[in-house]
Amino acid sequence: MSQSPTPTPKPKTVFGPGSYAESLRIGEILRKETVGGLVLIIGAIVALIWANSPASDSYFALRDFTIGFQAFGIDLNLSLGHWAADGLLAVFFFLVGLELKKEFVAGDLRDMKRAIVPVTAAFGGVLVPALIFAALNASTGGETLRGWAIPTATDIAFAVAVLAVIGSNLPSPLRIFLLTLAVVDDLIAIVIIAFVFTDDLRPPYLLMAIAPIGLYAFLTHMWPRFFAANLWAPWVILLPLGIASWALVFGSGIHSTIAGVVLGFCVPVLRKNKHEIDKPGLAEQFEHRFRPLSSGFCVPVFAFFSAGVAVGGAEGFASALGDPVLWGIVFGLVFGKPIGILGATWLVTRSSKANLDPDTKWGDLLGVTFLAGIGFTVSLLVSELSFGLASPHYDHAKVAILTGSLLAAILGTIWLRPRDRRYRLVNERAARDENKDGIPDVFQAPENNA
Asked: Is the pTM of this model over 0.85?
Protein backbone atom coordinates (compact mmCIF):
# COMPACT_ATOMS: atom_id res chain seq x y z
CA MET A 1 0.00 0.00 0.00
CA SER A 2 1.58 3.22 -1.14
CA GLN A 3 1.94 6.03 1.33
CA SER A 4 0.95 9.55 0.38
CA PRO A 5 3.95 11.84 0.13
CA THR A 6 4.67 14.04 3.12
CA PRO A 7 3.68 17.59 2.28
CA THR A 8 6.55 20.05 2.11
CA PRO A 9 6.25 22.58 4.92
CA LYS A 10 5.49 26.04 3.65
CA PRO A 11 8.33 28.47 4.35
CA LYS A 12 7.59 31.14 6.89
CA THR A 13 7.25 34.64 5.54
CA VAL A 14 9.04 37.61 7.02
CA PHE A 15 8.19 41.27 6.43
CA GLY A 16 4.62 40.33 5.65
CA PRO A 17 1.93 42.99 5.61
CA GLY A 18 0.85 42.15 9.16
CA SER A 19 -2.69 42.35 10.41
CA TYR A 20 -5.13 44.81 8.87
CA ALA A 21 -5.52 46.73 12.12
CA GLU A 22 -1.75 46.92 12.49
CA SER A 23 -1.38 48.25 8.94
CA LEU A 24 -3.97 50.97 9.58
CA ARG A 25 -2.35 51.95 12.86
CA ILE A 26 1.15 52.12 11.41
CA GLY A 27 -0.14 54.07 8.41
CA GLU A 28 -1.53 56.68 10.79
CA ILE A 29 1.81 56.86 12.64
CA LEU A 30 3.68 57.27 9.36
CA ARG A 31 1.56 60.26 8.38
CA LYS A 32 2.17 61.95 11.74
CA GLU A 33 5.90 61.20 11.74
CA THR A 34 6.21 62.56 8.20
CA VAL A 35 4.94 66.00 9.26
CA GLY A 36 7.13 65.92 12.37
CA GLY A 37 10.15 64.93 10.32
CA LEU A 38 9.70 67.87 7.97
CA VAL A 39 9.42 70.30 10.91
CA LEU A 40 12.51 68.69 12.46
CA ILE A 41 14.48 69.24 9.24
CA ILE A 42 13.43 72.88 9.16
CA GLY A 43 14.58 73.38 12.77
CA ALA A 44 17.95 71.81 12.04
CA ILE A 45 18.50 73.91 8.91
CA VAL A 46 17.62 77.14 10.74
CA ALA A 47 20.09 76.24 13.51
CA LEU A 48 22.89 75.48 11.06
CA ILE A 49 22.39 78.74 9.15
CA TRP A 50 22.18 80.80 12.33
CA ALA A 51 25.22 79.11 13.94
CA ASN A 52 27.35 79.87 10.88
CA SER A 53 26.07 83.39 10.22
CA PRO A 54 27.53 86.72 11.41
CA ALA A 55 24.94 86.53 14.23
CA SER A 56 26.24 83.16 15.46
CA ASP A 57 27.08 84.56 18.90
CA SER A 58 23.40 85.21 19.55
CA TYR A 59 22.54 81.60 18.72
CA PHE A 60 25.03 80.16 21.18
CA ALA A 61 24.06 82.76 23.80
CA LEU A 62 20.46 81.63 23.44
CA ARG A 63 21.39 77.94 23.61
CA ASP A 64 23.54 78.45 26.72
CA PHE A 65 21.14 80.81 28.53
CA THR A 66 20.57 79.30 31.98
CA ILE A 67 17.23 79.20 33.74
CA GLY A 68 15.89 77.01 36.53
CA PHE A 69 15.87 76.39 40.26
CA GLN A 70 16.96 73.99 42.99
CA ALA A 71 14.56 71.65 44.77
CA PHE A 72 15.21 68.87 47.31
CA GLY A 73 18.91 69.00 46.58
CA ILE A 74 18.41 68.63 42.82
CA ASP A 75 20.08 71.33 40.74
CA LEU A 76 17.72 72.19 37.91
CA ASN A 77 19.54 75.35 36.78
CA LEU A 78 20.00 74.25 33.18
CA SER A 79 20.72 75.93 29.87
CA LEU A 80 17.97 76.08 27.28
CA GLY A 81 19.89 73.48 25.30
CA HIS A 82 19.90 71.14 28.30
CA TRP A 83 16.21 71.77 28.97
CA ALA A 84 15.50 70.73 25.38
CA ALA A 85 17.65 67.58 25.64
CA ASP A 86 16.62 66.56 29.15
CA GLY A 87 13.08 67.94 29.35
CA LEU A 88 11.43 68.24 25.96
CA LEU A 89 12.99 65.04 24.67
CA ALA A 90 11.39 63.19 27.61
CA VAL A 91 8.05 63.77 25.84
CA PHE A 92 9.48 62.11 22.72
CA PHE A 93 10.63 59.13 24.78
CA PHE A 94 7.22 58.97 26.49
CA LEU A 95 5.75 58.39 23.02
CA VAL A 96 8.47 55.80 22.36
CA GLY A 97 7.47 54.01 25.57
CA LEU A 98 3.80 53.99 24.52
CA GLU A 99 4.71 52.64 21.07
CA LEU A 100 7.01 49.96 22.45
CA LYS A 101 4.41 48.69 24.91
CA LYS A 102 1.72 48.61 22.23
CA GLU A 103 3.97 46.69 19.86
CA PHE A 104 4.78 44.01 22.42
CA VAL A 105 1.30 43.81 23.99
CA ALA A 106 -1.12 44.27 21.09
CA GLY A 107 1.01 44.74 17.96
CA ASP A 108 2.58 42.23 15.62
CA LEU A 109 5.70 42.06 17.81
CA ARG A 110 3.77 40.04 20.39
CA ASP A 111 4.21 37.13 17.97
CA MET A 112 7.82 35.94 18.18
CA LYS A 113 7.67 34.65 14.61
CA ARG A 114 7.07 38.21 13.46
CA ALA A 115 9.23 39.89 16.10
CA ILE A 116 12.40 37.87 15.57
CA VAL A 117 13.20 39.46 12.21
CA PRO A 118 13.02 43.21 13.05
CA VAL A 119 14.54 42.58 16.49
CA THR A 120 17.49 40.70 15.00
CA ALA A 121 17.85 43.27 12.21
CA ALA A 122 17.85 46.10 14.77
CA PHE A 123 20.60 44.42 16.81
CA GLY A 124 22.63 43.97 13.63
CA GLY A 125 22.09 47.64 12.83
CA VAL A 126 23.46 48.56 16.26
CA LEU A 127 26.35 46.11 16.49
CA VAL A 128 28.04 46.71 13.12
CA PRO A 129 28.13 50.56 13.32
CA ALA A 130 29.50 50.31 16.88
CA LEU A 131 32.24 47.92 15.71
CA ILE A 132 33.14 50.18 12.79
CA PHE A 133 33.40 53.19 15.11
CA ALA A 134 35.52 51.23 17.59
CA ALA A 135 37.83 49.96 14.84
CA LEU A 136 38.47 53.47 13.50
CA ASN A 137 39.05 54.91 16.99
CA ALA A 138 40.92 52.04 18.62
CA SER A 139 44.33 53.68 18.29
CA THR A 140 43.30 57.03 19.80
CA GLY A 141 42.71 55.94 23.36
CA GLY A 142 39.68 55.90 25.60
CA GLU A 143 38.36 59.42 25.04
CA THR A 144 37.10 59.04 21.49
CA LEU A 145 35.90 55.48 22.11
CA ARG A 146 33.22 56.96 24.34
CA GLY A 147 31.31 57.81 21.16
CA TRP A 148 30.81 54.19 20.05
CA ALA A 149 27.02 54.40 20.53
CA ILE A 150 26.51 57.54 18.42
CA PRO A 151 26.08 55.84 15.00
CA THR A 152 23.83 53.08 16.35
CA ALA A 153 20.54 55.03 16.38
CA THR A 154 17.93 55.52 13.65
CA ASP A 155 15.84 58.69 13.64
CA ILE A 156 12.31 57.44 13.09
CA ALA A 157 10.76 60.81 12.17
CA PHE A 158 13.54 61.81 9.78
CA ALA A 159 13.73 58.40 8.06
CA VAL A 160 9.97 58.06 7.69
CA ALA A 161 9.70 61.59 6.31
CA VAL A 162 12.24 60.80 3.59
CA LEU A 163 10.55 57.48 2.78
CA ALA A 164 7.15 59.18 2.50
CA VAL A 165 8.52 61.73 0.04
CA ILE A 166 10.44 59.33 -2.20
CA GLY A 167 8.61 56.03 -1.80
CA SER A 168 4.84 56.54 -1.77
CA ASN A 169 4.34 53.58 -4.14
CA LEU A 170 6.67 51.09 -2.43
CA PRO A 171 5.11 47.94 -0.90
CA SER A 172 3.56 48.56 2.52
CA PRO A 173 5.63 45.81 4.24
CA LEU A 174 8.74 47.95 3.69
CA ARG A 175 7.18 50.87 5.56
CA ILE A 176 6.07 48.62 8.39
CA PHE A 177 9.54 47.11 8.60
CA LEU A 178 11.27 50.49 8.78
CA LEU A 179 8.96 51.72 11.54
CA THR A 180 9.22 48.48 13.53
CA LEU A 181 13.00 48.45 13.12
CA ALA A 182 13.21 52.04 14.37
CA VAL A 183 11.02 51.22 17.39
CA VAL A 184 13.26 48.31 18.41
CA ASP A 185 16.29 50.49 17.67
CA ASP A 186 14.89 53.08 20.09
CA LEU A 187 14.54 50.39 22.77
CA ILE A 188 18.20 49.46 22.38
CA ALA A 189 19.18 53.14 22.53
CA ILE A 190 17.16 53.53 25.74
CA VAL A 191 19.04 50.65 27.34
CA ILE A 192 22.38 52.13 26.25
CA ILE A 193 21.48 55.57 27.63
CA ALA A 194 20.25 54.12 30.92
CA PHE A 195 23.17 51.81 31.65
CA VAL A 196 26.17 53.24 29.78
CA PHE A 197 25.77 56.95 30.45
CA THR A 198 25.05 56.82 34.17
CA ASP A 199 28.25 57.90 35.90
CA ASP A 200 27.07 59.16 39.28
CA LEU A 201 24.15 57.03 40.41
CA ARG A 202 22.29 58.33 43.48
CA PRO A 203 19.92 55.52 44.59
CA PRO A 204 17.88 57.58 47.13
CA TYR A 205 16.41 59.73 44.37
CA LEU A 206 15.74 56.65 42.27
CA LEU A 207 13.87 55.04 45.16
CA MET A 208 11.84 58.21 45.72
CA ALA A 209 10.88 58.20 42.02
CA ILE A 210 9.04 54.92 42.58
CA ALA A 211 6.26 56.75 44.47
CA PRO A 212 5.07 59.16 41.70
CA ILE A 213 5.66 56.54 39.00
CA GLY A 214 3.66 53.94 40.94
CA LEU A 215 0.82 56.40 41.57
CA TYR A 216 0.84 57.33 37.87
CA ALA A 217 0.52 53.65 36.90
CA PHE A 218 -2.21 53.05 39.51
CA LEU A 219 -4.34 55.97 38.32
CA THR A 220 -4.07 55.16 34.62
CA HIS A 221 -4.97 51.51 35.21
CA MET A 222 -7.84 52.20 37.64
CA TRP A 223 -9.56 55.01 35.70
CA PRO A 224 -8.51 54.79 32.02
CA ARG A 225 -11.94 55.93 30.79
CA PHE A 226 -11.81 59.02 32.98
CA PHE A 227 -8.44 60.11 31.56
CA ALA A 228 -9.56 59.30 28.02
CA ALA A 229 -12.87 61.17 28.26
CA ASN A 230 -11.65 64.29 30.08
CA LEU A 231 -9.04 66.21 28.12
CA TRP A 232 -8.04 68.25 31.19
CA ALA A 233 -7.40 65.26 33.46
CA PRO A 234 -3.98 64.15 32.13
CA TRP A 235 -2.71 67.73 32.32
CA VAL A 236 -4.01 68.46 35.82
CA ILE A 237 -3.52 65.06 37.49
CA LEU A 238 -0.94 63.04 35.57
CA LEU A 239 1.40 65.81 34.37
CA PRO A 240 2.47 66.85 37.92
CA LEU A 241 3.25 63.20 38.70
CA GLY A 242 5.21 62.98 35.45
CA ILE A 243 7.22 66.11 36.28
CA ALA A 244 8.00 64.79 39.77
CA SER A 245 9.11 61.45 38.30
CA TRP A 246 11.26 63.23 35.72
CA ALA A 247 12.94 65.45 38.34
CA LEU A 248 13.73 62.53 40.68
CA VAL A 249 15.13 60.41 37.84
CA PHE A 250 17.20 63.43 36.79
CA GLY A 251 18.51 63.75 40.33
CA SER A 252 19.36 60.04 40.48
CA GLY A 253 22.02 60.41 37.78
CA ILE A 254 20.13 58.36 35.16
CA HIS A 255 19.31 60.39 32.07
CA SER A 256 15.92 61.95 32.64
CA THR A 257 14.47 60.85 29.30
CA ILE A 258 14.29 57.34 30.78
CA ALA A 259 11.49 58.67 33.01
CA GLY A 260 9.45 59.32 29.88
CA VAL A 261 9.93 55.74 28.72
CA VAL A 262 8.95 54.30 32.11
CA LEU A 263 5.80 56.45 32.29
CA GLY A 264 4.89 55.35 28.76
CA PHE A 265 5.14 51.73 29.87
CA CYS A 266 2.80 52.50 32.79
CA VAL A 267 -0.15 53.37 30.53
CA PRO A 268 -2.53 50.45 29.81
CA VAL A 269 -2.79 49.30 26.21
CA LEU A 270 -5.91 47.11 26.26
CA ARG A 271 -9.38 47.88 27.55
CA LYS A 272 -10.69 45.98 30.59
CA ASN A 273 -14.11 45.30 29.07
CA LYS A 274 -13.80 42.28 26.79
CA HIS A 275 -16.62 43.67 24.62
CA GLU A 276 -14.48 46.74 23.88
CA ILE A 277 -11.18 44.93 23.40
CA ASP A 278 -10.93 46.01 19.75
CA LYS A 279 -11.35 49.72 20.57
CA PRO A 280 -8.32 51.96 21.16
CA GLY A 281 -6.92 51.72 24.67
CA LEU A 282 -5.61 54.59 26.76
CA ALA A 283 -2.06 54.21 25.36
CA GLU A 284 -3.26 54.68 21.80
CA GLN A 285 -5.48 57.61 22.82
CA PHE A 286 -2.57 59.27 24.62
CA GLU A 287 -0.36 58.69 21.60
CA HIS A 288 -2.91 60.28 19.28
CA ARG A 289 -3.28 63.22 21.66
CA PHE A 290 0.36 63.94 22.48
CA ARG A 291 2.26 62.96 19.32
CA PRO A 292 1.62 66.36 17.67
CA LEU A 293 3.21 68.02 20.72
CA SER A 294 6.27 65.79 20.41
CA SER A 295 6.65 65.83 16.62
CA GLY A 296 5.60 69.43 16.08
CA PHE A 297 7.34 71.14 19.00
CA CYS A 298 9.52 69.10 21.37
CA VAL A 299 11.73 67.26 18.86
CA PRO A 300 12.13 70.24 16.45
CA VAL A 301 13.14 72.51 19.36
CA PHE A 302 15.66 69.91 20.50
CA ALA A 303 16.98 69.69 16.93
CA PHE A 304 17.22 73.47 16.79
CA PHE A 305 19.38 73.66 19.92
CA SER A 306 21.44 70.54 19.16
CA ALA A 307 22.10 70.76 15.40
CA GLY A 308 23.68 74.21 15.49
CA VAL A 309 27.41 73.75 15.04
CA ALA A 310 29.87 76.40 13.88
CA VAL A 311 31.81 74.61 11.17
CA GLY A 312 34.44 77.36 11.09
CA GLY A 313 34.83 77.51 7.33
CA ALA A 314 37.35 75.41 5.40
CA GLU A 315 39.81 75.34 8.30
CA GLY A 316 37.20 74.13 10.76
CA PHE A 317 35.92 71.48 8.38
CA ALA A 318 39.48 70.27 7.76
CA SER A 319 39.96 69.96 11.52
CA ALA A 320 36.82 67.85 11.76
CA LEU A 321 38.04 65.63 8.92
CA GLY A 322 41.17 64.88 10.94
CA ASP A 323 39.14 63.55 13.86
CA PRO A 324 38.51 59.76 13.73
CA VAL A 325 35.27 60.40 15.59
CA LEU A 326 33.85 61.94 12.42
CA TRP A 327 34.83 59.00 10.25
CA GLY A 328 33.61 56.46 12.77
CA ILE A 329 30.17 58.07 12.82
CA VAL A 330 29.89 58.65 9.06
CA PHE A 331 31.05 55.16 8.11
CA GLY A 332 28.93 53.66 10.88
CA LEU A 333 25.75 55.37 9.68
CA VAL A 334 26.27 55.11 5.92
CA PHE A 335 27.80 51.62 5.70
CA GLY A 336 27.42 50.02 9.12
CA LYS A 337 23.65 50.34 9.30
CA PRO A 338 22.93 48.72 5.88
CA ILE A 339 25.52 45.98 6.40
CA GLY A 340 24.28 45.16 9.90
CA ILE A 341 20.56 45.19 9.10
CA LEU A 342 20.81 43.39 5.78
CA GLY A 343 23.32 40.86 7.13
CA ALA A 344 21.20 40.06 10.19
CA THR A 345 18.10 39.72 8.03
CA TRP A 346 19.89 37.36 5.64
CA LEU A 347 21.07 35.21 8.54
CA VAL A 348 17.55 34.97 9.98
CA THR A 349 16.01 34.00 6.64
CA ARG A 350 18.67 31.35 6.12
CA SER A 351 18.68 29.89 9.62
CA SER A 352 14.88 29.78 9.99
CA LYS A 353 14.15 28.88 6.36
CA ALA A 354 11.91 31.93 6.06
CA ASN A 355 11.34 33.90 2.89
CA LEU A 356 10.68 37.53 2.19
CA ASP A 357 7.09 38.49 1.55
CA PRO A 358 6.36 38.10 -2.19
CA ASP A 359 5.72 41.86 -2.42
CA THR A 360 9.15 42.64 -0.93
CA LYS A 361 12.42 42.37 -2.83
CA TRP A 362 15.93 42.34 -1.40
CA GLY A 363 16.73 45.38 -3.54
CA ASP A 364 13.86 47.30 -1.93
CA LEU A 365 15.08 46.24 1.49
CA LEU A 366 18.57 47.55 0.74
CA GLY A 367 17.14 51.00 0.06
CA VAL A 368 15.30 50.98 3.38
CA THR A 369 18.51 50.02 5.20
CA PHE A 370 20.15 53.13 3.70
CA LEU A 371 17.38 55.23 5.27
CA ALA A 372 17.98 53.50 8.59
CA GLY A 373 21.37 55.25 8.55
CA ILE A 374 19.61 58.56 9.21
CA GLY A 375 20.53 58.87 12.86
CA PHE A 376 19.62 62.36 13.93
CA THR A 377 17.67 62.95 17.15
CA VAL A 378 18.96 60.14 19.38
CA SER A 379 22.46 60.34 17.85
CA LEU A 380 22.70 64.03 18.78
CA LEU A 381 21.59 63.20 22.31
CA VAL A 382 24.11 60.36 22.64
CA SER A 383 26.93 62.54 21.28
CA GLU A 384 26.24 65.12 23.98
CA LEU A 385 26.23 62.39 26.63
CA SER A 386 29.43 60.90 25.21
CA PHE A 387 31.62 64.01 25.01
CA GLY A 388 29.89 66.98 26.64
CA LEU A 389 29.36 70.46 25.22
CA ALA A 390 32.92 71.63 25.91
CA SER A 391 34.67 68.88 23.94
CA PRO A 392 35.79 69.56 20.34
CA HIS A 393 34.78 65.96 19.62
CA TYR A 394 31.17 66.99 20.31
CA ASP A 395 31.18 69.55 17.49
CA HIS A 396 32.91 67.10 15.18
CA ALA A 397 30.35 64.46 16.13
CA LYS A 398 27.51 66.83 15.20
CA VAL A 399 29.13 67.53 11.83
CA ALA A 400 29.46 63.77 11.33
CA ILE A 401 25.84 63.07 12.29
CA LEU A 402 24.55 65.71 9.89
CA THR A 403 26.88 64.56 7.11
CA GLY A 404 26.21 60.85 7.62
CA SER A 405 22.45 61.34 7.86
CA LEU A 406 22.44 63.46 4.71
CA LEU A 407 24.50 60.88 2.80
CA ALA A 408 22.22 58.09 4.00
CA ALA A 409 19.16 60.03 2.84
CA ILE A 410 20.75 60.71 -0.54
CA LEU A 411 21.76 57.07 -1.04
CA GLY A 412 18.28 55.91 -0.05
CA THR A 413 16.72 58.39 -2.46
CA ILE A 414 18.98 57.43 -5.35
CA TRP A 415 18.30 53.74 -4.77
CA LEU A 416 14.57 53.81 -4.01
CA ARG A 417 13.32 56.53 -6.34
CA PRO A 418 13.61 54.46 -9.57
CA ARG A 419 12.06 51.47 -7.80
CA ASP A 420 9.18 53.64 -6.62
CA ARG A 421 8.54 54.79 -10.20
CA ARG A 422 8.55 51.15 -11.33
CA TYR A 423 5.97 50.21 -8.70
CA ARG A 424 3.84 53.22 -9.69
CA LEU A 425 3.79 52.08 -13.32
CA VAL A 426 2.87 48.54 -12.24
CA ASN A 427 0.02 49.86 -10.08
CA GLU A 428 -1.27 52.08 -12.88
CA ARG A 429 -1.15 49.18 -15.33
CA ALA A 430 -3.02 46.95 -12.88
CA ALA A 431 -5.66 49.66 -12.39
CA ARG A 432 -6.17 49.97 -16.16
CA ASP A 433 -6.52 46.20 -16.50
CA GLU A 434 -9.17 46.15 -13.78
CA ASN A 435 -11.14 48.89 -15.56
CA LYS A 436 -10.99 46.96 -18.83
CA ASP A 437 -12.51 43.95 -17.05
CA GLY A 438 -15.54 46.00 -16.11
CA ILE A 439 -14.59 46.89 -12.55
CA PRO A 440 -15.71 50.51 -11.89
CA ASP A 441 -13.01 53.06 -11.26
CA VAL A 442 -13.69 54.51 -7.80
CA PHE A 443 -11.57 57.54 -8.69
CA GLN A 444 -13.91 58.66 -11.45
CA ALA A 445 -16.29 61.52 -10.91
CA PRO A 446 -19.69 60.48 -9.45
CA GLU A 447 -21.60 61.49 -12.59
CA ASN A 448 -19.43 59.15 -14.67
CA ASN A 449 -20.24 56.21 -12.36
CA ALA A 450 -23.98 56.79 -12.40
From this structure: no
